[in-house]
Amino acid sequence: MDQQELTKSFVANLTGLSEHLDKLNNLLLDEEAALTDQDLERSESIASNKEQLTTKVEQAEQLRQSLCQQLQITPDKAGIQTWLKSKPTSLQQQVASLWKRITYLGQKCSTQNQINGILVAHLHRHAQDALSILRGAVVGEDSYSQSGAHENKQNQKIIAKA
Known about the structure:
Number of helices: 5
Order of helices and strands: HHHHEEH
Number of domains: 1
Number of strands: 2
CATH architecture: Up-down Bundle
Radius of gyration: 25 Å
Strand content: under 5%
Strand order of the largest sheet: 1-2
CATH superfamily: FlgN-like
CATH topology: Methane Monooxygenase Hydroxylase, Chain G, domain 1
Distance between the termini: 79 Å
């Protein structure tokens, strides 16, 4: 492949990567809504789609790395900027815009994924607390008795108290 074809492939790859990240960001927002609504069926469907999209993002990133190597570009912002200096202004603007969008969407996806992880942890903790109640264990913080002695409520059984 000559330099011109590699450059076209590189721009197409960045465009695809941007599109995949945009879809992933929207899916992560949908996942947050499903988790907030505690819609398990929708959450499972989203998780499957998220896995597929994540695979596409990873494949696009691997291709980007490969194209950078073929174009003799360091695959980071500085390397791309150095490479672009010798390219036409229209290509500079196009690639700079795509790179900015990819960086922005990558950060948004990372932040949203962290938020969703916090929601999942909260829902998991809530479910564990509910299961503890069903099993007969008292759920809650450790406390102190009337005499001031430390009581661990986790070891107490509701039925044993009755």
